[in-house]
């Protein structure tokens, strides 16, 4: 008889953003005349930059001719893209990362879910609370956690590191030593950023304890402050303890195009094995490479025109972040994030739960956000708004919220 992976049955409800989407669809159906403004999921709204479009067109044309047609991509990524990444994202920032340590993929969501596969099931995982749900759910699916604990509203056998108002939404080193530590900075969902000194403490801790840090830097392009690192490899010793995940979704608007990469340094060894070898093996077996066309689009992100156009695009979203942050603050909300990140994290008013505020906001202002409790127990009483809407919608959403 066929049996199923019972670990899936430990998961609670559906994926957070699917739940939000279902609720919004039901509301829209019941209120067809209402113009809902969506500041929930962190999906971009600006079109692809012209340099990227040109590159896509050229690559499509290449596919039309036998001489330039490409079939399967190299499973770890084309050299033109891996070289551009190594130079621009790492070497120009003083990080000792080479092109052959970069694994191109179809996006950071897949990588952040898949990376756990190269680790034993007996590893203990530490995550921030609140947290991007993919890190936890994929470890649940793999069987690396216990059951869901309804009292604590989280999973047994996972180390949760509370990120609260008191600690500035930055995790503290855990009392119990973990094996795998997921960190995401600038943070999703809280928008908090970590300074280089604070991140260095994590790197030192991992090197001392033998833990591996899985560092999600999907939002690094939004960093504005000088002392905030764009990569964990800016820290001394990080190549011996950290894997870094990167995305083209937020820095270049590729949420629908799909491109990302993971860096696994060759020095990184655990249990007598190079993690680079394991990830290369996994990639080779399970992935046939991101499309040529898309990798050419990714290359354009690093061209002088691409860089200039994307700086403008990010400035556009960060202007939204300012509108949300200042608008809500002036209206008396307690807000954070939004300075080095496209997410604004606010405290729900009048002791409302996160989901109560979600319903209230949808009903009274017709604005969608993401309930903080969907990201973890310590997200209860908080709410996330994204800066990825259009400027006009963002301004209108804040007007509507402040008038409620
Ligand atoms: C979010 O809204 O948290 C992100 O868009 C999710 C993602 O990048 O997968």
In short:
Helix content is 37%, strand content 15%.
Account of the protein in words:
With 404 residues, the chain is α/β, with parallel strands linked by helices. The protein is 37% helix and 15% strand. It is built from twelve helices and 17 strands. It has helices at 16-30, 50-63, 79-90, 108-114, 133-142, 196-209, 249-252, 275-286, 292-300, 304-330, 354-364, 391-403, and strands at 37-38, 102-105, 125-129, 148-149, 154-155, 158-162, 180-184, 212-216, 242-247, 260-263, 269-270, 273-274, 335-337, 343-347, 367-368, 370-371, 382-386. The strands form five sheets. A seven-stranded mixed beta sheet has the order 2-10-9-8-7-3-6, sandwiched between helices. A four-stranded antiparallel beta sheet has the order 13-14-17-16. Strand 11 and strand 12 form a beta hairpin. The longest helix is centred in the last third of the chain and has 27 residues, at 304-330. It starts with 15 loop residues before the first helix and ends with a helix. The relative contact order is 0.17. Bound molecules: D-malate.
Question: How are the secondary structure elements laid out?
Answer:
Layout: H1 16-30, E1 37-38, H2 50-63, H3 79-90, E2 102-105, H4 108-114, E3 125-129, H5 133-142, E4 148-149, E5 154-155, E6 158-162, E7 180-184, H6 196-209, E8 212-216, E9 242-247, H7 249-252, E10 260-263, E11 269-270, E12 273-274, H8 275-286, H9 292-300, H10 304-330, E13 335-337, E14 343-347, H11 354-364, E15 367-368, E16 370-371, E17 382-386, H12 391-403
Parallel strand pairs: 1-15, 3-6, 3-7, 7-8, 8-9
Antiparallel strand pairs: 2-10, 4-5, 9-10, 11-12, 13-14, 14-17, 16-17
Helix pairs in contact: 2-9, 3-9, 4-5, 10-12
The structure holds D-malate.
């Amino acid at each position: 008889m066929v049996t199923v992976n019972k670990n899936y049955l430990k998961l609670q409800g559906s994926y957070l953003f699917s739940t939000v989407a279902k609720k919004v669809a039901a509301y829209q159906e019941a209120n067809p005349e209402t113009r809902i403004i969506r500041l929930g999921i962190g999906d971009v709204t600006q079109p692809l930059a012209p340099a990227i479009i040109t590159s896509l067109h050229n690559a499509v044309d290449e596919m039309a001719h036998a001489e330039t047609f490409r079939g399967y991509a190299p499973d770890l990524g084309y050299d033109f893209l891996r070289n551009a990444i190594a130079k621009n994202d790492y070497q120009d920032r003083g990080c000792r990362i080479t092109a052959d340590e970069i694994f191109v993929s179809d996006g950071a969501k897949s990588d952040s879910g898949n990376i756990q596969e190269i680790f034993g099931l007996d590893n203990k995982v530490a995550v921030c609370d609140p947290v991007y749900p993919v890190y936890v759910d994929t470890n649940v699916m793999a069987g690396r956690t216990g059951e869901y604990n309804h009292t604590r509203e989280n999973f047994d056998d996972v180390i949760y590191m509370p990120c609260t108002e008191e600690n500035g939404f930055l995790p503290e080193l855990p009392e119990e030593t973990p094996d795998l530590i997921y960190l995401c900075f600038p943070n999703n969902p809280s928008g908090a950023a970590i300074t280089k000194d604070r991140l260095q403490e994590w790197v030192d801790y991992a090197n001392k304890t033998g833990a591996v840090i899985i560092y999600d830097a999907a939002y690094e392009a939004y960093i504005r402050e000088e002392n905030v690192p764009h990569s964990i490899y800016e820290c001394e010793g990080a190549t011996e303890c950290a894997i870094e995940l990167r995305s083209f979704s937020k820095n270049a608007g590729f949420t629908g195009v799909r491109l990302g990469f993971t860096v696994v340094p060759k020095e990184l060894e655990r249990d007598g094995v190079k993690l680079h070898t394991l990830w290369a093996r996994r990639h080779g077996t399970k992935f046939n490479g991101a499309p040529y066309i898309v990798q050419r689009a990714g290359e354009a992100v690093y061209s002088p025109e691409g860089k200039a156009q994307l700086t403008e695009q990010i400035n556009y979203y960060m202007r939204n972040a300012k509108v949300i942050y200042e608008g809500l603050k002036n209206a008396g909300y307690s807000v954070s994030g939004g300075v080095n990140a496209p997410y604004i994290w606010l405290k729900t008013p009048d002791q409302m739960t996160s989901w109560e505020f979600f319903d209230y906001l949808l009903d009274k202002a017709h604005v969608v956000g993401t309930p903080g409790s969907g990201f973890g127990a310590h997200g209860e009483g908080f709410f996330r708004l994204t800066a990825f809407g259009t400027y006009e919608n963002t301004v209108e959403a804040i007007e509507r919220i402040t008038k409620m």
